[in-house]
Amino acid sequence: MLLQNKNAVIYGAGGSLGGEVSKALASAGARVFLTGHNIASVQKVAREIQKAGGSAEADQVDALDQKAIDSHLEKVVRQSGKIDISFNAVGVDLVQGIPLIDMKEDDFITPITFTMRTQFLTATAAGKIMARQRSGIILFLTATPGGIGYPYTAGFAPSCAAVETFSKNLAAELGIYGVRVVNMRSGGSPDSRVFKEAIVNRPEIMKSVIQKMEDDTMLKKLPLMEDIANLAVFLSSDQASKITGVTVDITAGTTAGLNYRTVAEVGRPLL
């Protein structure tokens, strides 16, 4: 198993993506310490992992509270001896679909400050411990707007760009201690809770939205949560021991170029 004897701390583990990554890490052999603001949703994920034969523990931790973060990590170290993987999947409420010139200041600024605060607190707390133990990986997650100009994504786009720059700088500072820092850049996952709820509430609109997003990709399909989780497992494993300080793109090609103009020609077989 790729992650046998590794310990992972996941923030926002009760969310759809946080839960998917948690399950994948546990399935690969990691002992996962799940945290979230809503303990009920975190415990649900922990039970699912345990039922599948994995090792999981759930705790209520506010990922915006430094004391709570530090206290939990100290508990993890006491129980397991070390922290090998840290991943923050805490979500943020967004206002999008509005031109920047028409946005309210708070709607633009809030997701940036929220995102950077929680990512800074959890990553640096883990980084201190990993630096002492001379090993570990800190994972981040951003999306397509972090790599290209993407209209009407409001404060989400600069949030992604800020996280990607922060991850590179943190990697540069922690590399001398044997600690890796890697960012995963994904597109929207249509099987995530946010998309599923939107599809139920606005089926016709979301059908068009998803089609446009798929058209933007080179593969004409969006990455699923499973794809992101599989990438997290690989990056956390010893097979990726020399990968650090970079953003690994799993957008199905949107960051390299928007491919909405590329269509298969009728009657021409694919080579």
Would you write up a description of this structure?
With 271 residues, this protein is an alpha/beta fold. The protein has helices at 16-27, 39-51, 66-80, 105-133, 156-174, 193-201, 203-216, 225-236, and strands spanning 7-11, 31-36, 55-60, 85-88, 136-143, 179-186, 246-250. It has 8 helices and 7 strands; from the N terminus they run βαβαβαβαβαβαααβ. A 7-stranded parallel β-sheet has the order 3-2-1-4-5-6-7, sandwiched between helices. The protein is globular, with a radius of gyration of 19 Å. It starts with 6 loop residues before the first strand and ends in a 21-residue tail after the last strand. The mean pLDDT is 93.
| Biggest sheet strand line-up | 3-2-1-4-5-6-7
Q: What is the averaged pLDDT score?
A: 93
The tally of beta strands, per DSSP, is: 7
Name the CATH superfamily assignment: NAD(P)-binding Rossmann-like Domain
Number of helices: 8
Radius of gyration: 19 Å
Distance between the first and last residues' Cα: 37 Å
Residue share in β-strands? 15-25%
Class from secondary-structure proportions? alpha/beta
Morphology call: globular
Largest sheet: 7 strands, parallel
CATH topology: Rossmann fold
CATH class: Alpha Beta
What's the number of structural domains? 1
| CATH-level-2 architecture | 3-Layer(aba) Sandwich
